[in-house]
Design goal:
By secondary structure, the chain is α/β, with parallel strands linked by helices. Among the domains are: 104 residues, Flavocytochrome C3, Chain A, domain 1, CATH 3.90.700; 135 residues, Fumarate reductase/succinate dehydrogenase flavoprotein-like, C-terminal domain (Methane Monooxygenase Hydroxylase, Chain G, domain 1, Up-down Bundle), CATH 1.20.58.100. It is built from 13 helices and 23 strands. A five-stranded parallel sheet has the order 9-3-2-13-20, with helices on one face. A five-stranded mixed sheet has the order 21-19-14-22-23, with helices on one face. α1 links the parallel β2 and β3. α2 crosses α3.
Length: 561
């Protein structure tokens, strides 16, 4: 039984830019808990290299930034959400400057670089390690801010909702989390919970994401009855370093923005044959072009060459990329960089409004966990970090203006009917199988047959994992695998529902772009109760809360809902 219930005004799950920004905005007036499954700075935000998009240069405009975003989003961006983010981006940059983020400068002014899909220089950056610098600054601020309690090495197990307690009017009451140090599941109670758990890149074999990107918030919100939208749009970054000793090392978009050229092994440049914008085309275009050239020529990788730029220029703009490549024997001032596409960003997620509210009262979501409507069918470069900050502030403001009803006492986590796992190898084998078939069947180019194969394997894996979850003590590896399988299912179902090729979703069976752009919205049956004649939800495991599952519900696709 859980020995502890932690009581707070706000629970924030995740410690990236979205979560820490929200915590800092709320700390003066609320008792805030930041719950993160590893160390405070281990999320995806710290891995962001390129920068943050904001209209700051003379001659640039909000309208131009909006239009660039809409073009990249292939018709699926929400106009209100896009303008909301773009117009609040400059104040977000100013806030970071006030906190002490050391943005790169040139002649005393912020240095603005340009990235693919942008019509102007509007990317604020800290050389080629923007995310790390921003994250480091926020972590320092959070650690010395009263009112913020930090729970590192705590993994989200599930949200606790009124429906799961048998109450008629549903809302989020708190959550269960696994304390890695003790191995025990503890309860957190609060009137407001905010999910900022990032994306799900680890569902694929090759990804630029850290090990934390396992879709925890998306899966938990789905199990709690929230809608999820546009999960078929997984952005594959065109240029991940290809080297046996390099794991998930991203070669920033800014390398192409500053003149880097993509070439075949013989030195032939190929992007002008694929798109008039060449290397500055949006990521989906560049990733598909690389995939095409690799398959056409039987290549393991292609090459990104910026060696024609002066060495001093490269050292000034890309010191970290240069240093990492040099460790591997690649001098980017004289040699091209071997690169391959890799899963990079989850454009879909939990449906929210402009205040970060989900379908479940008391539950908010911010950042890559969400589908706000900003990214549409393809995220424009450097729009992700600014989305985190803008919606973190918006959610914090809404929480601050909302009454704080005292949640009821929460039942302790009951693990009296489960045992320690006797074959943990099952988890590692299933994890490997999932990532490999998702890469093979649900990658950059898709077909109906590939999606059917993936769906079949997901069903088998999910049944096996649910049985494991029902009978053995939870571990972080098991929880992450459970969430990844749920997210994989949502990605495949969304892809099967889209009968066209748009943005990041390219299907050989449906290569034509339909005239009307509509969202793919999945709604769990448990959100409104099962339809007449359907089997009622049953407990998904022998531990925890009754009917703690929900992941077994069949989603109802609603195109354009």
């Amino acid at each position: 039984m859980a020995e502890t219930t932690h009581n707070f005004d706000v629970l924030i799950v995740g410690s990236g830019l979205a979560g820490l920004s929200a915590a800092l905005h709320l700390a003066a007036t609320h008792r805030v808990a930041v719950i993160t499954k590893r160390a405070l700075g281990d999320g995806s935000s710290a891995w962001a290299q390129g920068g943050i998009a904001a209209v700051l240069a003379e001659g640039d405009s909000f309208q131009a930034h909006v239009e660039d975003t809409l073009v990249a989003g292939a018709g699926l961006c929400d106009a209100d959400a896009t303008r909301f983010v773009v117009e609040h981006a400059p104040e977000s940059i100013a806030w970071l400057q006030q906190l002490g983020v050391p943005f790169s400068r040139e002649d005393g002014e912020l240095h603005l670089t340009r990235e693919g899909g942008h019509s102007a220089r509007r990317i604020v950056h800290v050389t080629d390690a923007t995310g790390a610098a921003v994250q480091r600054t926020l972590v320092e601020q959070v650690r010395r801010t009263p009112g913020i309690a930090l729970f590192e090495e705590h993994t989200l197990v599930d949200l606790i909702t009124a429906r799961k307690l048998g109450q008629a009017q549903d809302r989020c009451l708190g959550l269960y989390a696994l304390d890695q140090a003790s191995g025990k599941v503890v309860s957190f109670r609060a009137p407001h919970t905010l999910l900022a758990t990032g994306g799900a890149g680890k569902v694929y074999l090759y990804t630029t994401n850290p090990d934390t990107a396992t879709g925890d918030g998306i899966a938990a919100a789905w199990r709690a009855g929230c809608r999820v939208a546009n999960m078929e749009f997984i952005q594959f970054h065109p240029t991940c370093l290809y080297h046996p000793q390099a794991k998930s090392f991203l070669i920033s978009e800014a390398v192409r923005g500053e003149g880097g050229q993509l070439k075949l092994p013989d030195g032939t440049r190929f992007m002008p044959q694929h798109d008039a914008r060449a290397e500055l085309a949006p990521r989906d275009v560049v990733a598909r072009a690389i995939d095409f050239e690799m398959k056409k020529h039987g290549l393991d990788c292609v090459y990104l060459d910026i060696s024609h730029q002066p060495a001093e220029f490269i050292l000034a703009h890309f010191p970290n990329i240069r240093a990492r490549c040099l460790e591997l024997g690649i001098d980017i001032t004289r040699q091209p960089i071997p690169v391959v596409p890799a899963a990079h960003y989850t454009c879909g997620g939990v449906v929210t409004d402009l205040a970060g509210r989900t379908d479940l009262d008391g539950l908010y979501a911010v950042g890559e966990t969400t589908c706000t409507g900003l990214h549409g069918a393809n995220r424009l470069a450097s729009n992700s970090l600014v989305e985190c900050m803008v919606f973190a502030r918006a959610a914090a403001q809404h929480i601050a203006a909302t009454p704080r009803p005292a949640p009821p006492q929460l039942p302790a986590w009951d693990d009296s009917r489960v045992t320690d796992a006797d074959e943990a190898v099952v988890i590692s084998h299933n994890w490997d199988e999932l990532r490999r078939f998702m890469w093979d069947y649900v990658g950059i180019v898709r077909t109906n047959k590939r999606l059917e194969r993936a769906a079949h394997r997901i069903a088998l894996l999910r049944a096996e994992i649910q049985e494991f979850y029902a009978h053995f003590q939870v571990t972080r590896d098991l929880l992450e695998l459970r969430n990844l399988v749920q997210v994989a299912d949502l990605i495949v179902r969304s892809a099967q529902a889209r009968h066209e090729s748009r943005g990041l979703h390219f299907s050989r069976d449906y290569p034509v772009l339909l005239p009307q752009a509509v969202d793919t919205v999945l709604k769990p049956l448990s959100a409104a109760g099962p339809p007449q004649g359907a089997k009622a939800p049953v407990p998904s495991n022998a531990q925890g809360m009754p009917a703690l599952g929900g992941s077994e519900d069949t989603p109802v696709p609603s195109v354009g809902a």
